[in-house]
Design brief:
Structural class: mainly alpha
Strand content: under 5%
Radius of gyration: 21 Å
Order of helices and strands: HHHHHHHHHH
Helix content: over 70%
């Protein structure tokens, strides 16, 4: 009896195994097609145990979204170099974002593809995560404007709009960058470290910085585009 008890898997470990199996299943099968039987089999547990620990399929999907959202936000904020120049902070945050989405493709698929298309309450969970990242990026852009001496010229609404645009571009680029091209080369056309089929996080972050930071730099120098 003592030996049997010592081999029992702690509940926290079991839950993590179930959640990992759920992330993989939801990402690859979709929310509606995924079954609790499939998740239980992948986790190596019984279906009743999944229900006992994580309740319904809807509750399990919500828990997966919350876990993957928290992990993504933590990865982005932890990657930022706090004492660096504004452009370096933004680049390091983007690098953290692209590194996390590349290292956790199933989690990213759940957040970016599955949860958004299933309506409430799942879309609300993802929207909350996105809003947190947008607030963080808004702070970085505001700090950059202050560093450039033009903080008073950029209204809060404009800074927020720039943050939304940058986050949206990063999401789109992450979806594209994580998909290998037909000929097996990097979508960016650059030599990649490690997997040759995909750009590295630094390459993806650099591509977005080349697109966005040049424009932000001109804006912070007082150069604005206006229609002819």
């Amino acid at each position: 009896m003592g030996a049997a008890k010592s081999k029992r898997v702690p509940r926290a470990v079991r839950e993590r195994q179930m959640m990992d199996a759920a992330v993989r299943t939801f990402a690859r099968r979709g929310y509606r097609a995924a079954s609790m039987d499939e998740i239980a089999e992948l986790a190596g547990v019984s279906k009743p145990l999944v229900y006992l620990y994580l309740n319904s399929k809807e509750d399990l999907f919500s828990a997966v979204i919350r876990r993957e959202s928290a992990a993504l936000v933590a990865a982005v904020t932890a990657a930022v170099e706090p004492d660096a120049a504004a452009d370096r902070q933004l680049w390091s945050g983007l690098t953290g974002f692209f590194a996390h989405t590349a290292e956790h493709p199933d989690g990213w698929a759940v957040l970016h593809q599955q949860a958004r298309t299933q309506g409430e309450p799942f879309a609300v969970e993802v929207a909350a995560m996105r809003a947190e990242i947008v607030r963080f990026v808004t702070g970085l852009i505001a700090a950059a404007a202050k560093e450039a001496g033009c903080a008073g010229e950029l209204a809060d609404r404009e800074v927020a709009g720039l943050a939304h645009a940058l986050v949206g571009a990063a999401e789109s680029l992450a979806e594209w960058a994580n998909a290998p091209t037909a000929d097996g080369t990097s979508p960016l056309g650059l030599p990649s470290e490690g997997e040759g089929e995909r750009p590295t996080a630094k390459e993806a972050a650099g591509a977005l910085m080349n697109f966005a930071w040049a424009g932000l730099g001109r804006l912070m120098r007082g150069e604005r585009w206006t229609p002819a």
